[in-house]
Design a protein that fits this description.
Blueprint (H helix, E strand, L loop, with lengths): L1 E2 L9 E7 L9 E7 L4 E8 L6 H18 L6 H22 L8 E9 L2 E7 L3 E6 L2 E4 L6 H7 L5 H5 L20 E6 L5 E5 L1 H4 L4 H8 L4 H14 L6 E7 L14 H4 L2 E3 L1
Helix pairs in contact: 1-2
């Protein structure tokens, strides 16, 4: 299991951990936390296992995203820096795949977030998930970019059927497959005590929302990662399992919004 450094930027509690699971010989997931002068973030990527180089794609995407984000001027908003960084990561994975015949079809999913005070910015491509936990209520903030999920949103497949459908992991979007990638972007505000969780499908494919909420609540970010990965491994973990968690500081300071329902804090989501 690999553990990324904990930045604790602005007293937010960050952690990210990954494990190859009980079946896979190679871990094609990659995760990290990172710190800039004015904010901190985390990122999870899940290499596409149907092609060679999934582990390379996820590692390169994460490393390039972080480097590109940190290279952007802090005068730009975190949301702008993060979007530019994920596009740079996509181009790099795409170009490396073209340059190396052994990696010709490599690709990866990626979900990343940045916190500056109470301001949350996120980018998302694929089927990792970003969850928001407040007062025991769990909300999935991202949409899965899979065939089964798209059919569910169109109303031609039930959520129950989609959960075990053969196309539940067939991606409709990922990094590296095309030179320009459609990226979902999210911006909103959080409150003291909120928990934000990004996990790969190796976790959310085995644990339901109630279990994810219970394992992530009322604990440190590091222990929440351990609990989620441990629970997935206890169920056989046929895929790699990765979790990245941030517990929002209890001392956000001036400008933080008071706690309230999710709808009261919803600021902007655009795709």
């Amino acid at each position: 299991m690999s553990v990324a450094a904990n930045p604790n930027a602005g007293d937010h509690d960050f952690a990210s951990k990954t494990d190859r699971g009980r079946v896979r010989a190679v871990n094609e997931d990659f995760c990290a936390t990172f710190t800039a002068l004015d904010c901190a973030g985390l990122v999870v990527a899940d290499g596409v296992s149907s092609f060679h180089g999934g582990d390379t794609a996820s590692r390169v995407a994460v490393e390039v995203l972080i480097a590109a984000f940190l290279a952007e001027p802090s005068s730009q908003s975190p949301a702008t820096r993060l979007y530019r960084a994920v596009q740079r990561a996509n181009i790099t994975v795409h170009d490396q795949a073209l340059d190396n015949p052994e990696l010709r079809s490599m690709a990866t999913t990626l979900t990343a977030l940045v916190l500056r005070g109470d301001e949350l910015s996120a980018v998302h491509v694929g089927d990792c998930r970003l969850y928001w936990l407040r007062a025991g209520e769990l909300r999935q903030l991202t949409r899965d970019h899979t065939v089964a999920a798209e059919r569910t949103r169109l109303g031609i497949m039930s959520k129950a059927r989609a959960r075990n459908h053969p196309d539940r992991s067939t991606l409709t979007r990922c990094l590296g497959r095309e030179l320009m990638c459609r990226v979902d972007r999210l911006k909103t505000r959080v409150c003291a005590g909120d928990v934000l969780l990004v996990c790969s499908d190796g976790v959310h494919g085995l644990l339901d929302d109630r279990e994810i909420a219970a394992l992530s609540d009322s604990t440190t970010a590091s222990l929440a990662c351990d609990r989620l990965i441990g629970a997935a491994n206890d169920r056989g973990a046929p895929d790699n399992v990765t979790a990245a968690v941030v517990r929002v500081s209890q001392a956000l300071g001036v400008g933080a919004r008071p706690p309230g329902p999710f709808s009261a804090l919803w600021h902007r989501i655009w795709r």
